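Recall the central idea of this unit: under ordinary conditions, the amino acid sequence of a chain determines the structure it adopts. In this exercise we apply that idea directly, starting from the sequence alone.
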Amino acid sequence: MPPYRVTDELVRTTRSTESFSQYAVRMYARAFAVALSLVTLGCDEPNPSSSPTTPSGSTTANVRIVFMGATARRTDLPTSAQACVSGVGATHTHPSWRSFAGIPMQPVPPDRYEISFTDVPVNTRVSFRVNDQNACDENPTGAVTRNVLANDVRLIQNTTTPGNGDEPGFAFSIAPNGAISQ
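Accordingly, the structure predicted from this sequence is:
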């Protein structure tokens, strides 16, 4: 094989490798540009919302309800409270914005229950109640009247809610930024 053919073959191989490298660099550059465009797409909002709980203009907000109460069943409940204990079952809440349906709360042993909602109407007075077996000696329906917080704001028992007759509950309003008022 003559030497010029080896050189031509070497040149062709080098050009082909160089073309592939240039192609790969161009493709990586394009992929980077697309990724950068996608990342910055959401960054062009002129006045971003300062609220961590809800975007501006939203009609709902996030609320975390906490009941500070023992997650273990009390052993000192009187026998007269047993019907209430059986009726209450697991600790739960009844929120007005969900038609007072019973919704179980998550126990966080040893001393609290929690639940988070993402659909609480803003700038509207809403109410709810918490029912807990350990409150059966204070209220015949197990409705809790203290140690309840909404977004870390301690609530006072300030309303009644439908249940077995009128049961004690809590009412509040939430601002779009998550601030609670009673």
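The longest helix spans residues 3-41.
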